[in-house]
Structures are given as C-alpha cells and as structure tokens.
Design brief:
By secondary structure, the chain is mainly α. Helices cover 62% and strands 5% of the residues. The chain has a two-stranded antiparallel ribbon.
C-alpha cells in the first residue's frame, strides 16, 4: 500500500505548525510569569552561529508553505519575515495554516514525478522529483527548524515535552 504525497505533507505540516503555535503560547506565558522580556526568548539561539527562535519559526513556515505550494503547482506565497513578537509569529502561523489548508489532496496527489527545481539558475541548482523533494529535502528541513525552535525554548526553561512538540494527531 502506498501513501499519498498529500497525506505525507499537508496534514503533517498542519499538525506540527499547530503544535508550534501552542509551544510559542507557552513560551509567551513563561516569559510573562517570570518577568522575562519576550525579545530575550525570541532572539535566543542554541549556539552563536545558529538562527534565533524568530528565524527558526520563519524558516519552518517557509518550508511548509513552499513545499506544499510547489507540490500543488501553485505560486509560493511571499511574506516579508518582519515578525518581532509572539503575536507576530502566531499571525504568521495562522496565515500559513490558512494557505496550506486551502490546498486539496487532488492538487498534490499524483505529483510524485513533478520536477522541482531548487535555486534555479544558480551554481547550486538542483532538480528533484516531487516525491524526492518532499521526503528527502522538504520534510527534513521542516522538522529541523521546528525541532530547533522547540529546543531553544526548552533550553530556556519553557516547560514543554514531547506531547507539546507532537501536538494532536
């Protein structure tokens, strides 16, 4: 039995982005309860050469919307990455959840052989089939950034666990 590209993408993105929104709410509440300036958490990083929390969330949503759009053959929505608060990040998550929620299985299923071109016209150009793009590039990238966002908050004392990361399934 095979699994559809849609089933392996959009519902997974929805689950983890919804959970990420819940984790960010816990972080906001954590900061308020401990009189921590929210920007301290929003700009926290695991290591100096890694992106801060805000950027990790932005990249995670970029992968969710980009992968979904490319598989569906629709234009990837462009957002300015200007988020500076927990409210801004929640609004971004809602916007992306709305976009990927508007995509239907029929737009994505059957696109296993669709050619996806990464970094077109550059020396780093890479061509992948839709299936390879999702399974070997898009999902790993998405999970990396969601996990890193979660880890930044956990490292900073926000009381979250595996159930928070996973969300409802």
């Amino acid at each position: 039995m095979s699994i559809s590209l849609y089933a392996a993408s959009v519902p997974v993105f929805k689950q983890l982005l919804t959970a990420l929104g819940d984790v960010l709410k816990k972080a906001e509440d954590h900061a308020a309860a401990r009189n921590i300036e929210p920007s301290v958490l929003l700009q926290s990083r695991l290591y100096p050469d890694m992106f801060p929390l805000v950027r990790q969330v932005q990249i995670a949503v970029d992968f969710a919307k980009g992968v979904s759009a490319r598989l569906a053959g629709v234009e990837v929505p462009s957002y300015p990455d200007a988020e500076q608060s927990f409210a801004d990040l929640q609004a971004l998550l809602a916007k992306v959840l709305g976009f990927i929620g508007s995509l239907e299985a029929a737009q994505i299923d059957g696109q296993e052989e669709r050619e996806i071109v990464l970094r077109p016209g550059t020396p780093k150009e890479k061509k992948l089939s839709g299936q390879a793009y999702l399974l070997h590039y898009g999902l790993p990238q998405f999970f990396f950034h969601v996990t890193t966002a979660y880890d930044i908050l956990r490292h900073n004392g926000v009381e979250v666990g595996k159930r928070d990361f996973m969300g409802a399934y």
